[in-house]
Design brief:
single chain; 205 residues; alpha+beta; 2 domains; 7-stranded antiparallel sheet; 3-stranded antiparallel sheet; 3 helices; 29% helix; 33% strand; disordered N terminus
Length: 205
Amino acid sequence: MFNSTENTKTFFEKVSDFSRQNKWWIIFIIVVILCIIVFSFSLTTKRNTPVTTKTYTDSLHAFTITVPKHWITEQEAGNNTTGENTSNPVTQQIEISQLYVPPEEGVTIQVYEDKPSCPLNYSPTTTFAGFPASYDPNMQTWTIPTTKATLTVSILYPGSTMVHHIPLQAKATPVPSIVAEQNKKYMLGILNTLKLTNLTPFSCQ
């Protein structure tokens, strides 16, 4: 005859034996899960806390962007010449703006001042600040051609896959995927404040 009571006891006895034999692993797993929950909650609370902001304008007046006031803002400028061994060398001014908080959260915006040449090395796949743009998900970089300059916009945050021009050049810290998504959403919110000024969309058509 089938004895359900005996089978039930046997099952709980097995569970009890497993718990005794692996209690430290179970405790460890519980602690890790609790740490992830607490960390995620604290980060969400921090992200949702209103912060004082400032508006940054680059020296070429190509864009403005609003970032947290405590972020560091740096800018470099230089020249780049292509086609030096040809009859038609081209020199363009390059401006690099870095807006960040060390070691691994920020935005890098590069402005290559000159009209792009056709055909473009990339095809617009999306829009950015209302302009046709291409997006590289691996580099987390947008490229925006305009009639006066080409801009690239890159983001870096804990959990992102790439390291851009943040001065410390630190390897992005591994974080749970849910935290990485929260960080990315936060950075995209900052990018939504970026406005291109004195520029017109460029097209080869």
